Amino acid sequence: MTGLFVTFEGGDGAGKTTQAVLLDEWLTAAGRTVVRTREPGGTEVGVLIRDIVLHHRGHVAPRAEALLYAADRAHHVETVVRPALSRGDVVIQDRYLDSSVAYQGAGRVLASAEVRDISLWATGGLLPDLTVLLDLAPDLARQRLDADDKPFDRLEAEKSEFHSRVRDAFLGLAAAEPERFLVLDASEPAPEIAGLIRERITPLL
Question: How many Å apart are CA 199 and CA 23, to the nearest integer?
C-alpha cells in the first residue's frame, strides 16, 4: 500500500475537525494506519509556533505571520508527514498550505503566489492527494463559533470582511485545481458530508 495525504480546509467553524475524526475512524476500521495531525501545532516545535500565531496578544506583522506558518510547515512535513507517507500510512491533516494562501495571502492582503511559493519551498513541493474544502458562509461560521463559547484566537477574531476574503480565496483555489479539491457545503449534516468524502477517497485508496 502507498501512503495517502488528505487535507481539510475551510474557514473557522466549518467542521474540519469533525470530518477528520470521522474519516480517521472509517479508515482505521478498514484496516489502514492513519496519522491525524494539524497545522500549526502538529509537532513540539509547532505547538510553540501555534501559540505565537494564534494566541500572541500583540501585533504580528503579516509577513512574519506567513513565515511562521511556513516554518511550522517545513518542520511538520519533514518530521511527521513524509515519514508517515513513506510507511504507507494515510495522513489526515487539519489545514495545510492552502490555508496560508487564503488567510495570509487574501486575508492579510499579501501576494498569494508568494505565500504559496514559500510553503512549496518549505515542504519540498509536497501537495495533498486530496484536499477537502468545507465551504461555509462567514455568518454561519460565526454562529457556530459563538455557540462553542470559547475565546476567539487571533484569526477567528478578525472582522467579517477578512473572513469573506478568506472564503473567496479558498473557492478560487478549488476552482483552479478541481482534480485535487473536493468542495462540500459545510452546512449539510455531518454524516452526509462524511459519506461524500468516503466516495471521493475510495478510488484513491
Answer: 11
The residue to which cell 476552482 is assigned: 175
Decide: helix, strand or coil at residue 17: helix
Each residue's pLDDT tens digit, 81-134: 999 999 999 999 999 999 999 999 999 999 999 999 999 999 999 999 999 999
Residue 178 CB neighbours (<10 A): 9
164 in Cβ contact with 38 (< 8 Å): no
pTM of the complete model: 0.92
Query: Which numeric CATH code is attached to 4-204?
Result: 3.40.50.300
What residues does each domain of the chain span? 4-204
Sign of the Cα pseudo-torsion (38, 88, 175, 15, in order):
negative
What stretch of H or E contains 35? strand 34-38
First vs last Cα of the chain: how many Å apart?
A: 8
- In a 13 Å sphere around the CA of 107, the CA atoms on its Cβ side amount to 26
